[in-house]
Amino acid sequence: MLTKFPHLRQDFAASLVVFLVALPLCVGVAVASGVPAELGLVTGIVGGLVTGFMRGSSLQVSGPAAGLTVLVFEAVREYGLPALGVIVLTTGVLQIAMGVLKLGRYFRAISVSVVEGMLAGIGLVLIAGQLYSVAGAKAPVSGLDKIVELPGALVDAVGSTKALASLALGAATIAVLVLWKRMPAKVRTVPGPLAAVGLATLAALAFGLPVATVEVQGLLGSLQPPPLSEFGELAQVGLLGTIVAFTLIASAESLFSAAAVDRLHSGQRTEYDKELVAQGAGNALCGMLGALPMTAVIVRSAANVQAGARTKASRVMHGVWLLLFAALLPNVLAYIPIPALAGILVHAGAKLIPVREIVSLWREHRGEALILVVTAVSIVAVSMFEGVLIGLALAVAKTAWEASHIKLEVVDKGAGPVQAYLSGNATFLRLPKILDSLEALPQDRPVELHLSGLHHLDHACRTALENWAERHSAAGTEPVKVTAIQVTAAK
C-alpha cells in the first residue's frame, strides 16, 4: 500500500487536521447564512469528494466560505431557500463554461485592490452581523444599518441576563482564537476553531448557560433540491445579477487562493482553467442538492499544506471524515452554542480586512489604497454586487488615466520655428492638457510638431491636433509642419 501510495501517511494526517479545521467553519458559515447547519457540511463534503478529486490545484481545499456568507444571506432573504439551489447550480455551470473557454487565467488580471476591498467589505458586514448573534440579538437587514445600530444593540444586551451570557460566551470564543497561536506547540495540534467551539460547548453545558444552540434537521432532511418551478425565476434581472456576483466572487476568491497556496509549497502548480472547472463542478452539484456555494478557502488550504499534505488525497479524505461525521454524529451539532459560531466568524471576518496592506498601499500607491477603501465602503453602504462594480470601474478609470501619460516639450531658440515634441500616449483623457499647451505657443511663429515620440494616438487626439494646426496656420504664419507619425493610431 505504501509503495503504491508513498505519501499516504502524510496525507492521512493532514486530512484529519483539515477536517478538524473545516468542521466548525462549515457549521458556522451555514448558520450565519441563514440555512440549516447540515447544508454547510454538505458543501464541505462535495468540496472534498468531488472538487478535491478533480485536477486544478492539488493542495487547495474547498468548502463553504465566510467570504460568501453575506451574499448568501441576502439571496436567501430576498428569493427564498429553494432559489439558492438555482443560483448555485447556475453559478457552477458558468464556472465550468469559463474554465472550458480558458478564461480562468484572466481572473489574475483583476485588480488586487478590488479583490482585497471586496473581502474587506465582506469582513466588515460579517463582523457587524455576527456581533448581533454574539449578543443574542437579531441583526438589521442592510450592511449600513448593521454598523449604525450595533452600539445600541450591545448596550441593550447589558440589561439582559440571557444576552450577557451569550455575549460572554462569544467574547470568550474570540479570545481563545486570538490567544491560541501563543499556546505551546503540543496544545496547538488541536486547531484553534475546534478548540474554541469545544470549550464554549463544554462551558455552556457545565454552567447551564441560557444560550441558543444549533438546530439539527438531519443530513437528508436538510437537503433542499430546487424544484423545477424555481428555474423560472431566472427571468428576474435581480436574480441574474446575484448569479453574476456569485460567479465573479467565488471564482476570483478561489483563483486568488490558488495563487496564495502555490506560494506555500514547491509542488505542482495550479492549472487555473482546470481549477475553475473543478470549482464549477462542485458548485453545480451543491446547487442540485440545495446546499451552500463553495470556494477554495485559504484557511483550510494553508492548514493542509502546513500539516504536511503531499497530494490531493488529503483533501479527498477530509471530505470522507465530514461525511462520516454528518451521517453518524449529526446530533452533536445540537450542543454547539450559536454565540461560539458567531465568534468564529467575527474572527474570520477580521482576517478579511487587510489592515497592513492598506497602510502599505497608502504609503506607496495611494490610488490603489483609495480603490480598496471605496470598494469596501460601497459594499457596506450599498450592496455586494454594486460595490464590486464600483471598485472595478475605479480600477479601470485609474489604469486608463495612468496609461494616458503624455509629455510636451517645447524648444524655442528665439529665431526660426518653435519645435514641439509630444511623447507618451495621446488619448482623449489628456486632450484638454495637450490643447492648452499647444494653444499657448506663439501665434506669430511657425511650429514644427514632432509626434514620433508617441506610442499611441487615438482618433480624438488626431482630429484635435489637425484642427489646431489649421487654426494656427490660419493666423498668417507658415503651415504647421508635422513629423512622420510612427504610432499606433486608433481608427
UniProtKB/TrEMBL annotation:
Asked if Lipid metabolism is a keyword of the record, the answer is: no
| InterPro entries, alphabetized | SLC26A/SulP_dom, SLC26A/SulP_fam
Q: Where in or outside the cell is it found?
A: Membrane
Give the membrane topology. Multi-pass membrane protein
Which chain regions cross the lipid bilayer? 12-32, 79-101, 113-132, 163-180, 192-214, 234-261, 320-349, 369-397
Q: Where is the SLC26A/SulP transporter domain?
A: 8-375
Keywords associated with the record: Membrane, Transmembrane, Transmembrane helix
Q: What is this protein called?
A: SulP family inorganic anion transporter
Look up and give the organism this protein is from: Streptomyces prunicolor
- Source species taxonomy: Bacteria, Bacillati, Actinomycetota, Actinomycetes, Kitasatosporales
